[in-house]
């Protein structure tokens, strides 16, 4: 014979009643049996608590409990379908609420956050979005934020890391050529909005770093990894120099230097003496070490108006041509 739940103590009953209202608000419609399972009580105890709730409230200006001063439920659903639906919430409806526009902005931000690899499949964020939608003064607009390829790729790589399998993908290298790679995944890391895979590349027979958004046809293989993170030295810096790298001279604001520190080889004195050297907004000449012009373009684009390429000439031309091509696209769109 099943053991009947024990009657709650007075203190436990108070805690339960204080928890019941937000529980019902969050779910909008819930059966008595579901609530009983959630709180570990009998259906009879839940019904008694709901009936007590309907004679509870906050007195109005007359200091008397009128109809609008009490919690209320959909009695038809409660008595006929054994469902609890709050139809009037005392005092809570008078609390400040987000407007539909404010709730939409917050939901859009949470959707963007949910698409980041580290938050993929986050039930917590989904729950917060649902609460924002329900708690707004009116229904927020319908929003959709597309999922990035990196978020999809992280799921595959994490699965391979957990299973000890290699991953295979086509990768666009520094020269713009596409090569097929077989890699033993070692570590996933993020830098700003970019995600990187550190792994043992079977093609190069060395540890390499790969940007996830430059991978295509990524898949987890059935092959067991040859190397794990404990077996090799994984680079700690985002940018690892090699013999094929090139030095580029730029004019950059001093305040930007910490943001590009991985690429800085040397910094010359700022023009204007010691006062300029102490000014975080002063411009300095710096030498950067980069693998290719593609990385230089991204660096300049990430800090618009703050980095000017001085040389060599082919690096300066590459950035100028890239900027001109982008401007031409805007003019083409505007003209059409």
TrEMBL record:
Source species, domain of life: Bacteria
WCX domain segment(s): 247-325
InterPro entries to which the protein is assigned, alphabetical: CBASS_pafABC_assoc_protein, PafC-like, PafC_HTH, WCX_dom, WYL_dom
Alphabetical UniProt keywords: Proteasome
Domain WYL intervals: 155-218
Domain PafC HTH: 12-133
CC annotations in GO: proteasome complex
Name of protein: Proteasome accessory factor C
Originating organism: Plantibacter flavus
């Amino acid at each position: 014979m099943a053991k009947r739940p024990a009657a709650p103590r007075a203190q436990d009953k108070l805690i339960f009643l204080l928890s019941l209202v937000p529980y019902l608000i969050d779910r909008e419609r819930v059966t008595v049996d579901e609530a009983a399972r959630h709180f570990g009580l009998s259906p009879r105890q839940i019904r008694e608590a709901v009936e007590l709730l309907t004679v509870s409230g906050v007195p109005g200006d007359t200091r008397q409990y009128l109809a609008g001063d009490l919690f209320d439920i959909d009695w038809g659903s409660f008595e006929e379908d054994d469902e609890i639906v709050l139809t009037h919430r005392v005092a809570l409806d008078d609390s400040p609420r987000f407007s539909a526009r404010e709730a939409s902005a917050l939901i859009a931000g949470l959707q963007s956050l949910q698409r980041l690899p580290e938050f993929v499949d986050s039930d917590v964020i989904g729950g917060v979005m649902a609460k924002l939608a329900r708690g707004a003064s009116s229904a927020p607009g319908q929003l959709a934020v597309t999922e990035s390829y990196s978020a999809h790729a992280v799921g595959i790589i994490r699965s391979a890391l957990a299973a000890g399998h290699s991953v295979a993908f086509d990768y666009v290298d520094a020269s713009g050529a596409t090569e097929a790679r077989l890699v033993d995944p070692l570590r996933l890391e993020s830098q700003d909005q970019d995600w990187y895979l550190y792994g043992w590349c079977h093609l190069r027979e060395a540890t390499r770093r790969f940007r996830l958004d430059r991978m295509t046809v990524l898949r987890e293989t059935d092959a067991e990894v040859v190397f794990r993170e404990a077996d090799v030295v994984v680079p700690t810096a985002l940018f690892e120099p090699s013999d094929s790298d090139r030095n580029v001279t730029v004019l950059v604001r001093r305040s930007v230097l910490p943001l590009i520190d991985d690429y800085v080889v040397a910094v010359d004195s700022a023009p204007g003496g010691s006062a300029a050297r102490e000014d975080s907004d002063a411009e300095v000449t710096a030498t950067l070490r980069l693998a290719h012009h593609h990385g230089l373009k991204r660096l300049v684009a990430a800090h618009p108006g703050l980095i000017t390429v001085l040389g060599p000439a082919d690096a300066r031309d590459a950035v100028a041509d890239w900027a001109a091509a982008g401007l031409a696209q805007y003019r083409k769109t505007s003209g059409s």
